[in-house]
Amino acid sequence: DIILPLGGNNPAGVLGQVSGALELAEQVERGEVLDPKRLYLPVGSGCTVSGLIIGVALAKHLGMKAFQEPGFSIQAVPVHEALAWLQKKFGVSTLPISRWLPLTVRHSVESTCAALVQLGGPDLLALSLSVMRDHLEFRTDSAVVGTYGGHSPDSRAAASAFESSGSVEGVSAPDMAQPLWLCGHFAAKAWAIMLQDLEAQVVDGRKCVFWMTKSAVQPLGGRDEWATLKDMPHVVREWADGGKAESALRVGRVDTREGSPSDYRHLMRPLQ
């Protein structure tokens, strides 16, 4: 059996994000992209941001010429109001005592670094904690974070701005040229913070990376996901039905009472 924790936050999931950070470092070294000044991403379980921290540490350990911009930072935007409040008041996600608290960045970084050593990799704990201390910044503006599960006013405005005038350029794969999925409960909140910084001209837009944690391609497997959802407990179906579909570019909805799979499957791609 495969156990998938909240947000995929276990060492295997975090190491997947480490590889993503290394891929970006390789692109920087090849001159394909500029060395980023800021990475922007939403934070839920902490899996992605923990992987980026370790990935930056590994790039430094390997002597790669990436993540060397003066003032380089990882801009982390909590998507849950409770997480944002706890981080703003107490810095809970990075406190030393949080090494014992699952779903905090400190716990994820330490447990993944330990797993990496067990797999025969380098010991990156000290360097990763240094990256976490010196290059990680949480953005906890309540107007952006809002309430978990949907748009805040700021994230809705930012997503609408992209849908009305934004585009994805410089890619050759047709699937990757699909509109970004700026979902209200997650990605759009980090997008809003990045737009605020760009509008305030606090960072060069050419050196910003929006770390998209929602795939442009939604996979459709061999199992009937609609039948599975319909068999779920009432509280789960009610939660699914209550989600608002606001995207004008990715039009779809889930309604287990009166809807059908055709309401959303056009946004999915069958797995080969």
From TrEMBL:
UniProt-listed InterPro entries: TrpB-like_PALP_sf (IPR036052)
SUPFAM superfamilies reported in the protein's UniProt record: Tryptophan synthase beta subunit-like PLP-dependent enzymes (SSF53686)
Protein name, per record: Tryptophan synthase beta chain-like PALP domain-containing protein
Species of origin: Octactis speculum
